[in-house]
């Protein structure tokens, strides 16, 4: 068998069709998130996404035949990123106090790190007046919510404590409100102070739930 020459080992691997497709999809999703954050849902048209992503309209519609399918994929993509952030933050935390602190720190990061959180808020608000978007995104959001509630509560094989579900809903509502306030131009330091007020209450309640006998 002939050994490969040193020069051949330095040649870059040729991109496959799968590589090119993945790169195109990533460009489309990145452009969509940016437009949602800066222009809002109504202005984030297929044509504008195509232009911003520097992808032909035909290529875009090959991957995402409708605007609603682009939006559902943005939600799914962000949910995976959010799950990774929580897993990384909570993986080494042993005590309830450490887990709750890590969870709340991650919640704050979701609002302040990058445009994705506000983009998802734009999509969720638009579902009220777009039946096609509602139909495509409803199952995605339901799966995301069920997974995150069970995983964060630590009750992956059984229904979580109803108080945990209620408190998590309040936290989600607060985060969405903070994202909207940030979009309105409220300084992040002001939002941070407000979040800290909520954090103290939320931490106490989460730990009270964790201390309840199973």
Quick tags:
single chain; 10 helices; mainly alpha
Description:
With 214 residues, this protein is mostly helical. It has 10 helices and no strands. Helix 5 packs parallel to helix 8 (131-153). The protein starts with 5 loop residues before the first helix and ends with a helix.
Write down the CATH class of the domain at 68-210: Mainly Alpha
Mean pLDDT: 88
End-to-end C-alpha gap: 64 Å
Backbone CA Rg: 21 Å
Envelope shape = globular
**Spans of 5+ residues with little confidence (pLDDT < 50)?**
none
- Would you tell me the structural class of the helices and strands? mainly alpha
How many helices? The count is 10
Instruction: Tell me roughly what share of residues is in helical segments.
Output: over 70%
Written as H for each helix and E for each strand, in order along the chain, the element string is HHHHHHHHHH
State the CATH architecture of the domain at 68-210: Orthogonal Bundle
Largest sheet: none
In short, what is this structure?
Helix content is 76%, strand content 0%. The protein is an all-alpha fold and 214 residues long.
SSE blueprint and pairings:
Elements: H1 6-9, H2 17-39, H3 46-53, H4 57-63, H5 67-90, H6 96-112, H7 116-126, H8 131-153, H9 162-183, H10 188-210
